[in-house]
Amino acid sequence: MPFNIFDIIGPVMIGPSSSHTAGAVRIGRVGWKILGEKAVKAEIGLFGSFAMTGKGHGTDRALVAGILGMTTDDERIPRSFEVAKEAGLDFTFSEVKLSQAHPNTAILQLTGVSGAQCIVQGASVGGGNIVITKLNGMESAFTGEQDTLIIAHKDMPGMIAMITAELAEHGINIGSFRLSRPQKGLQAVMTIELDTGIDEATVSKLRGLHDVGNVVYMAAH
Amino acid sequence: MINYNSISQLAKTANEQKVTISQVVLNDQAKELGLSEEQLFKQMEEMLDVMIASVKAGMNKDTRSSSGLTGGNAYKVNQYSSAGKTIGGSFCTKAIAKAIAVAEYNASMGKIVAAPTAGACGIIPAALLTMMEEHGIEKKAAVMALITAGAIGMVIANEASISGAKGGCQAECGSAAAMAAGAMVEMFGGTNDMVADSCAIAIKNQLGLVCDPVAGLVEVPCVKRNAGGIMCAICAADIALAGVKSVIPVDEVVTAMREVGESISADLRETARGGLATTPTGIMLKEKIFGK
């Protein structure tokens, strides 16, 4: 893996743990970005090491900070519970049992100010890096570091060609592409990381395509 | 472009150009990141500024971690040091206080620079700041030394590991000590070869160090291992500056570190299943913090 000097001297972060604190902020922040609006309710499930040692690492406060849109170096992270109260965000924590999940996993069930909802399951995999493993019940695998499109669609011939043609027409290059489908012929999910961001009009156009279900777009920053 | 897979090669390249390792790396990384050298220097200076702030904040008498396990000890050591009667003298005790300060501040959810990790975040700030305060090193030289430290860390990350879960504490505090030693040698005017030797000596002296955090938290023994790490770095830097060579060349030492890391039991790699974590007191503290 190629490193640059700021991977080693850095990042600037709120301690104590890159996996249990910084990674938790990042998972929360992806939830906030996917929701696309201010969250008013967050039901947070903790699994494995997050549930067991999270309190001592401030994992709970880090997740709430992320849901409020904070980044890993935000000095308000330690008092994110108070910030949430001021911002009108209600949150609850519970321990969840999962099979075959990474030990540092959180599940965020978020409701936004205008009623939008999303369920984000993410794992903190070390060094502050994260992977979103499930989105709204569908398998996924993206980091949130890149501009990302998540497209639910019917599993049938021609869907990839149709979506990628639409992106090509707007001059958008694909950095990585992943398709998952729990069962042949039913619903499938594309996770596409993009080299450049896309505008709301293009996202709407994707949503309007035949046999395309929900489309979530998440900008990297 | 530099590959960052050999510390001796870094020294050799710098020798050929008749410059310091930091100058070679500044030039290379600026190109790599698409920045001017001035921009990269500025970004690195911002890292040093966060380090300076974290040392200051961590010296507070009332610093306490969420678990209550650590805090307030940097203040104690600093007071002891300032009183003047110490075994290790002003430089060593001030450096120890600073390393503990940053590590305690990290444990209390303070803002730190992971260097190379959050668990080992006190060692490099202690090296840089103590050199500035006790030996009158200019800030500019400290920023350049931080670049040298980063380059050493890149080689270790590429050829061994900087993760406690992969390589034990030798990968975290051991790497930070090597990086700090190299930085101090460069700041003190040592040669590029001395920088490389100081890294080899620092790693050799922490080879095999396990990662066994009580209750799985970055506190016990991590905070005091940062103090141990800076002392190891000072020792290695002074040995190298005296002209002593490492018998085992630095790159072979890094390879040995990787092999040792791979052979450390998983119980002693950040899982809290062995070592200090499973002593009677370690278990008692875990139950006190998280319940049975």
According to DSSP, the number of beta strands of chain A is 11
The percentage of residues in β strands of chain B lies in: under 5%
The Cα radius of gyration of chain B reads 18 Å
Low-confidence segments of chain B, given as residue ranges, are none
Terminal CA distance of chain A reads 23 Å
Strand order of the largest sheet of chain A: 3-2-4-5-6-7
**Average pLDDT across residues of chain A?**
92
Assign the structural class of chain B, choosing from mainly alpha, mainly beta, alpha/beta, alpha+beta, or little secondary structure: mainly alpha
Rounded average pLDDT of chain B: 97
Outline of chain B: globular
| Total strands of chain B | 1
Number of H- or I-type helical stretches of chain B: 13
Enumerate how many helices of chain A there are, as a single number.
Answer: 7
Measured between the Cα atoms of the first and last residue of chain B, the distance is: 53 Å
Question: What kind of sheet is the major sheet of chain B?
Answer: none
Whole-angstrom Rg of chain A: 18 Å
